[in-house]
Amino acid sequence: MKVPVRVDGRELTLSNLDKILYPDHGFTKAEVIDYYSRIAPVLLPHLQGRPLTVKRYPNGVTGQSFFEKNAPEHTPAWVRRVNLPAPGSTKNRESIDFAVVDDLPTLVYYANLAALELHVPQWRVDGDGTALPPDTLVFDLDPGAPATIVECCAVALALREALAAEGLTARPKTSGSKGMQLYADWDCREEPSAYAKRLAQRLEKAHPKEVVSVMARKARPGKVFIDWSQNNPAKTTVAPYSLRARERPTVSTPLTWEEVEGCEHADDLVFTAADVLARVEKRGDLFGRA
């Protein structure tokens, strides 16, 4: 069944609203759209100006999924698009028409496509669609079993200190999956990937039993991999407040440092869509600019 709606002056047609996208929890497409609509006031500032990559799950989280960077031809004309070079494109494109989620209608449009996960780079485009220098530094902390987010929190605290010593203020969030991420406003003092790699290697040297800075799987059991590579301009990271395609409708959730310091069990920092809506109502956007 298709349902015509009007969102901030834009006409949209929603479909299959009763389709269950998270089977273990009966979480439907209507609930996905509702979540993104309600979280929009704090989510949109983190998406605005950033070329969008989505991960779509048309048949739910247990079905096939696919990443989508290029906005297809049927994308409504009112969705902002920017054409950007695509070096190394797997489809041999010279450029890609990226959507940019600057408003609620665009966010609802993508939610209706079962775009559960929203991924963006660490840079924005200007009003003319020209790429700007990176404004964010990110470290993705990925635990190698049996390590969990508990070990990630310990590494995050060490990383926070290292960044603070260099005048950078870190902001933590869960990945919504196994690990977590640290962000800091970036001042372009140097190439961000090189800076992040050097800092990761420094922490690996200081904490060799807890930290690894290389991607090789064999090096990671029981340690936390500090993935510095997501600072590459061609890469993206899951956006704050994005849903994740897990068994439960978990969310990449901004945290307080008190929560990081107090984490004792992996379940301490697992938040669903309902949890995050309640957190934001109570605390506002914990991921606002420092």
Automatic annotation (TrEMBL):
Sorted UniProt keywords: Ligase
Top-level taxon of the source organism: Bacteria
Domain DNA ligase D polymerase: 28-287
Annotated EC: 6.5.1.1
Pfam families named among the record's database cross-references: LigD_Prim-Pol (PF21686)
Keyword Ligase on entry: yes
GO molecular function: DNA ligase (ATP) activity
Coiled-coil blocks: none
The keyword Nucleotidyltransferase appears for this protein: no
UniProt enzyme class: ligase
PANTHER family the UniProt entry points to: BIFUNCTIONAL NON-HOMOLOGOUS END JOINING PROTEIN LIGD
The protein's name: Non-homologous end-joining DNA ligase
